Amino acid sequence: MNDPFKKYKDLYRDIIFGYSEYRLESNKKKIFIKHLNELENGESERKHQEFIYIAKESGLKTEKEAVDFLIEQDVWTKKKEDRVKELVDKLSQLRLTKSKLLVKSQVELLEEEIEPLENELSGLNFERQESIGMTAEVFANKKISELTLQRCMFKDRGLTEPLYTEEEFDYLEHYEVNECLSIYTEMVAEKFEGEEIKKVAVCPFFMNSYAICDDNVFNFFGKPILTLTNFQLSLMSNAKYLKNLMTSHKPPPEDFQESPSKIIEWFELQSKSSEAMKGIEDKGEAGGKSLFGASKAEMTSLETAEEKSLNLTEEIENHGGEMNFDEILKMHGM
Fold first, then answer.
1. What's the number of domains the chain is made of?
2. CA distance 249 to 333
3. pLDDT 10s digits, 30-77
């Protein structure tokens, strides 16, 4: 039977150790990719500005200058440029609205409205970039990507021996650089995408340990916040948020216990339900509460009860420092 929590045990291990393991397809070598921290990202930002300066000194236009030039030459149009900005603003507003919706059917309707706009924006951005070509920003981004690969990729778990020296990197074939870049991009944008880290944070194997550290990051990692990787910081931030939800809302029914994503969906539904109830009460609509299109589970989440807020930390300590999800549910009275 497939265990939906197993994947997140693997991600948790990587987050704790601060690196991920991969194998290059081109030569079958195992590599180790270091997870960066905020200070290291800040250094990259400074380097980015240096590369922008170098590019401009070499005669490359900035993106704005290139767009203005293309509009003058009728290669690109101001109408298309304005449409790109309009789509960016509209999508931002729609996503904000979506984040506040309670009823799943309403979310799905909004997603249907968002999808064609995203597709239109993607097409315009592709056409725009093809017309613009190499700019100072594109050059700087390319150099930062190469620098990041040199700093992050190692031959050993101790992260002491770089996969390539600076000189070796300069002589790599195009396909070798692209392979490394593809692996790194997948790690950052997919494997440790924000929602994936949130799913790690809701798992009992992590929450058991976090709940007894009193929300103290140093107690958990034993080192200052500034030295933590971005993934570690994201894990701690999500843990605090989810622990607050779990200790102040009702536990999920059985059909919401099957995976981390369903558990998160339930507790966030609870949070939105509380906001909805407050809005109803503020308007004096205490009787006959209902929401158009709401499912049975969504309406259940709106039900109120005089429930005692539970201290998750104390309960886990009482169970010897470890609880599975079924025990956490029993703690909530399920």
1. 3
2. 12
3. 999 999 999 888 888 889 999 999 999 999 999 999 999 999 999 999
109 in any annotated domain: yes
Q: What is the span of the domain harbouring residue 224?
A: 195-331
Locus of tokens 């339900």:
273
End-to-end CA distance of the chain: 25
Domain of residue 47, CATH code: 3.30.2220
What CA–CA distance (Å, rounded) separates 236 from 215? 8
* Sole residue written with tokens 């380097």: 47
Task: Record the pTM.
Answer: 0.79
- CA 99 → CA 77, 104, 176, 204, 236, distances in Å? 34, 11, 40, 26, 22
Instruction: Identify the CA nearest to 299 among candidates 111, 110, 104.
Output: 104
The residue out of 173, 191, 209 marking a domain boundary is 191
d(CA 32, CA 107): 39
What CA–CA distance (Å, rounded) separates 250 from 39?
Answer: 39
Among all chains, which residue has been given the structure tokens 């025990």? 327
In this structure, the answer to whether residues 47 and 92 fall within a common structural domain is no
Q: Are residues 141 and 207 in the same domain?
A: no
Q: What is the pLDDT of residue 281?
A: 61
DSSP string for 265-276: HHHHHHHHHHHH
